[in-house]
Each structure stands twice: as C-alpha cells, then as structure tokens.
Amino acid sequence: MVVVFFHSSSGEDSETFKSAVDQVTSIYDQMIADLVRSSGRPDPREILLREHKASILAYYGSPSDAVTASREAFESASALGSEESSLLIRPLIDIGQSARRAGDFRQSYAAFKRAVDLSKKNCPDFPRTQLVPLGQLARVQAESGDSEKALASAQSVIELARETYGANHGRYFWYIELTARTLRENDHHEEAQVIEGLKPSKAPSAGFVYTAGLDKPARRTKTSKPAYPRGAQDLGFENRVVFRATVGPDGKVQDAHPEVCVGFGFEEETIKAVRRYRYEPAVVNGKPVASAVGGVVDFRLDADRR
Fold it and tell me: CA dist 286 to 103, 138, 195, 216, 281, Å?
C-alpha cells in the first residue's frame, strides 16, 4: 500500500512538488508491472492500483495525465468483464471527472452517462447509486454553458433524490442546495431559482433526518464483519464499498445503501453488515434525532484465499 501526503506550493517548490508526484506515480507503475508479471492474467487488483494512480493525478497532476490513467483503469476493468460490467463504473466516473477538468465536456458527459446506465443495470435494487454519476453529469451540463440542458439534468438529480430519500431527509435538501449552487456558479441564475423553488417551505417535521446542525453527531458503538461474496471470492475480486445510512433516535440503522455500484454482491453484503451496526444517536437541542452517517467497508482476500 502507498500512503500519500502532499502539500501543494508555488514558486521554487513547484518543481519539487511535481517531482514528488512523478515519483509516487512511478511507484504505482512498478507495482502494476510487478502484479501483471506475477499474475500472468488479468487481475482485479490491477484495477484498484490504476484507480489509485488516477486519483493522485486527478488531484495533483495534469488533467490530461489523469484522463490517460483513468482510461488505463477502464481498459483493465474491460479485460476482466463485459461491456456491461459494474467494474467499469468507477473508472468511468474517474474519466468523467478528469475530462471535465480538462475542459473536454463531450468525453466527460459520455463517461458519466454510461456510468448512470451501468448503475441502473447492475444495481437495480440500489437506485441511489445513480446519484453520484447523475450529479456529475448535471455539473458537466452546467459548466458547458447550455442552460436548458443544465436545468433538465439538475431536475433529474433532484427528482431521483426525492424518490430515493424522501422530502423529509437532509440529503434531499443537500442535493437541492448543491445543484442550485453549481448552476449559480456557472451563471445559470434563473435555473438555480427553479431548483431552489423545489425546497420544501415547511420546517422539518417529526422524523426529519439531519445531515447538519447537530449538537452531537452519531457515534458508532458496534460494527459487524460482512460475509465475502462467494462469486467475488472465487474470481479473486477485492473491493471497497462506500455506504451511507440513516441512524434512528434509538441508535439502530433504519436505512443503508451503497454510494457507488460495484457489483458482484459487494453491496448486498455491505448493507447486511451495516444494518447490524449500532450507534450512539445524534443529538439536537438535547434530544436524540435521526441522522445520516457514512463509512466504508473494505473487502480484502487473505493470502491463502487468492
């Protein structure tokens, strides 16, 4: 594992910083080459290494290098699955983000659109997994300057957020605020007003799920280890599932879902485990309330299971 800490600077240190980024990506290149040489066949761990490298370049390197690295991760995923595989979703999101930063809105839109479609196909039981690529797609439309398409994409995001979270959930409010802000930042002021008009005018009712304004956040007191999906284990697949959940005033998990579709049963086993978690509930005005929490579950194979 490579742990990276960067501090961006300017002036004389800029070349030193660039050199550090080059050194870290070279380490990843060597790890990938060693893995390919030792495996002798497509290996799912290669996808994760390439995704990590792409993430570093997305934040600290040039947009064009990040796009190239993301495409390499996509090609590794393609070698392991079909053109409809869930393995392609995260690399597609990476391609979309890097292409957007590079100003290639057409490539970015195509990548996010395909990520949405694959999320629908591979994770039909978890429609919220469409929100990440759909939200990014709306951002691309806003930055590309087309007001009509920007509004249509923004409305699609808010509609899905309402359908999957409900109007009494803080995440629904969050999506409205985030989407409206993105529109305003790109001079779509009238469109932003339309989105802001979707925000409920009534004060939060009983059972509102808080995402902010907490006197004390929920604290996890009990975890549960997920079962390893047998099909994924047989194929040698490892993964990380980012989840979001709603914790009730009693500290029990009321609702949980994966943030991004990864497939192969990882989502189902994650949610089963998360539902067994227990929390000390969040507090507002001295009373326990329902709140949104998040976390990650890592699936790693032991050496003797590879």
Answer: 48, 39, 33, 9, 11
